[in-house]
Amino acid sequence: MPIKIPNNLPATNILESENIFVMDTDRAYKQDIRPLKILIVNLMPVKSITETQLLRLLGNSPIQVEVDFIYTESYVPQHTSQDYLTEFYGTFAEVRHKKYDGLIITGAPVEQMDFEDVAYWDEICEIMEWSKSHAYSTFHICWGAQAGLYYHYGIKKHAVSPKIFGVYKHHLSVEHEKLFRGFDDEFYVPHSRHTEVRKEDIEKVEALTILSEAEGAAGVYAIANLAKRQFFITGHAEYDPLTLKGEYDRDVKAGMKIEIPQNYYPNDDPTKQPVMKWRSVANLLFANWLNYYVYQETPYNLDELYAANDYMYYI
């Protein structure tokens, strides 16, 4: 089934070249199918790159998906033009009256700042509070995961050195978890961050369950609340094959002290083509979330949902 996106979104050409079935707004209106409504809070600097990464995965599903993008009003992005934002994005004020099957909060390049020092922190807090009654399931990624754990459960992030940077081996911490249905016993996911949340802090919160962990420095990977309505993912399964290379080359060019991404280049040789080990992981992760925790749970009429089930957030 297709993913419904705004007319003329630049990601369309890339996705179509990869045989991802996309449908523009005009065509979707002619179909008598209620798509899943997903809101993406895109906090990454170059919006189009993150759009393509996420849409590629959301579109690899038999479920029709309708996506809205928003950016923060309290901090206007510096690497995406206002014309682009005006055409393809909205603001929280423009969507706050709506209800969504799912919400995705992306990572952001602000992890070394205290949460309260981030220019748009108050706005993100408002969105996360709003999500309790307006989004059935919320999927937090990297900094978004750290922000969600801090806001909802008071779990702090901690600086690490050196940077957690590379492709790490992971395993499941619980059995028969639907989010990881079809995963191998061991699987690989990229990480790129200067901070971490600690296992011992998460285990003190009875409302949270650790679903997956990585070997070595990457630590805890996936956390869920008991109602399985909030997921916190510390890595970047959505990354393209060359995303880590781009970050590494950028930092080397800037003269920054940066280690070669772990388990990424053959023989740790950055002159060689990186090996992608997480493509199937990414597709399964997002397909499972959409199917088992969004599509299978939300009613046809979203307005009927929250009067009956809002309490589930507070279990």
TrEMBL record:
InterPro entries (UniProt xref): Class_I_gatase-like, HST_MetA, MetA_family
Protein name, UniProt field: Homoserine O-acetyltransferase
Gene3D superfamilies linked: 3.40.50.880
Protein role: Transfers an acetyl group from acetyl-CoA to L-homoserine, forming acetyl-L-homoserine.
Keyword Transferase carried by entry: yes
GO biological process: L-methionine biosynthetic process from homoserine via O-succinyl-L-homoserine and cystathionine
Catalytic activity annotation: L-homoserine + acetyl-CoA = O-acetyl-L-homoserine + CoA
Site (Important for substrate specificity): 192
Alphabetically ordered keywords of this record: Acyltransferase, Amino-acid biosynthesis, Cytoplasm, Methionine biosynthesis, Transferase
Catalytic-site annotation from UniProt: 142, 236, 238
Compartmental location: Cytoplasm
Pathway(s): Amino-acid biosynthesis; L-methionine biosynthesis via de novo pathway; O-acetyl-L-homoserine from L-homoserine: step 1/1
UniProt-listed HAMAP family: MetA_acyltransf (MF_00295)
MF terms in GO: homoserine O-acetyltransferase activity; homoserine O-succinyltransferase activity
Organism in which the protein naturally occurs: Propionispira arboris
Superkingdom classification of source: Bacteria
Site-annotated residues for Important for acyl-CoA specificity: 111
